[in-house]
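Module 6 notes. Inverse folding takes a fixed backbone as the condition and produces residue identities as the prediction. Think of it as a translation problem where the source language is geometry and the target language is the twenty amino acids. Below is one complete input and output pair. Work through it position by position during the lab.
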């Protein structure tokens, strides 16, 4: 295909292809690379039928994602500590905002995607998130429709939270207020208020990737998480530290800054005004593009 055709297709489909890649890989940088590679490959191809380029591009991107996930499985197994998805900072003026602004991009859902194998993840995302018909999904993942239906059914039985498209029950204002209350209590050292914001079975996840100090394993329960947060209040009491609220994966999150340089990204899972999960991302490789 010539450069003019590719340029038109790139502008038309980049956001969709990136959103598929990001959900599949959990990495914004990998998603960008995959989209670029697909269009580079497209430039070397002779496409005889251009009637459904969207389906062709989706298939090419999905195949690249599957290859990457299969090759990186060993790296994930050897990863130091907890692996968290690469956070995605979202801005309303970004063309990606509208296509990514839904619950399927939340850190909680992205974590659930990690429990699926590559083929399961592709089938779920293509069918449940992008609502492609089964014949299209089957063609993309190279399985028959019956198998795709069975795989999706098993996923929904195994991970019912994934099947619930309304799993995020808090509205935007409630989430922002909860995050604001969390920051105020944390900065002022008001542990009683901080504990009240945490759900009884709250979970704290941290990802340092072996390159920054972080808890190696998830921390469970209000008592243990509140003790950790109390220790962190002392670490961050330096006036040069500041918290900036920003949209992380479609919901209010925080950027922890030291002298205006981002040191960590903090995401939350919030329901009914309480924090169910905290995602503390301090791996420098994952936050350098924020």
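Target side of the pair, the amino acids:
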């Amino acid at each position: 295909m010539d450069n003019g055709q590719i340029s038109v297709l790139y502008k038309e489909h980049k956001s969709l292809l990136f959103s598929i890649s990001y959900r599949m890989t959990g990495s914004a940088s990998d998603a960008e690379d995959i989209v670029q590679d697909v269009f580079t490959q497209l430039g070397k191809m002779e496409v005889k039928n251009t009637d459904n380029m969207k389906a062709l591009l989706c298939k090419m991107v999905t195949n690249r994602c599957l290859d990457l996930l299969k090759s990186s499985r060993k790296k994930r197994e050897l990863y130091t500590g907890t692996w968290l998805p690469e956070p995605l900072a979202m801005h309303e003026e970004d063309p990606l905002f509208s296509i990514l602004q839904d619950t399927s991009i939340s850190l909680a859902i992205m974590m659930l995607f990690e429990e699926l194998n590559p083929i399961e993840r592709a089938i779920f995302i293509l069918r449940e998130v992008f609502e492609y018909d089964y014949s299209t999904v089957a063609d993309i993942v190279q399985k028959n429709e019956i198998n795709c239906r069975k795989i999706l059914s098993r996923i929904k039985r195994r991970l019912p939270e994934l099947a619930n498209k309304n799993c995020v029950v808090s509205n935007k204002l409630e989430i922002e207020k909860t995050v604001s209350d969390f920051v105020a209590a944390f900065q002022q050292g008001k542990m009683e208020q901080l504990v009240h914001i945490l759900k009884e079975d709250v979970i704290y996840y941290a990802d340092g990737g072996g390159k920054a100090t972080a808890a190696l394993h998830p921390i469970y329960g209000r008592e243990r998480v509140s003790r950790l947060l109390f220790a962190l209040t002392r670490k961050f009491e330096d006036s040069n530290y500041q918290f900036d609220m920003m949209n992380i994966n479609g919901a209010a999150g925080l950027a922890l800054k030291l002298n205006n340089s981002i040191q960590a990204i903090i995401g939350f899972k919030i329901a009914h005004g309480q924090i169910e999960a905290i995602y503390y991302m301090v791996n420098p490789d994952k936050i350098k593009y924020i």
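Reference fact for the lab report: DSSP finds 13 helices and six strands in the chain.
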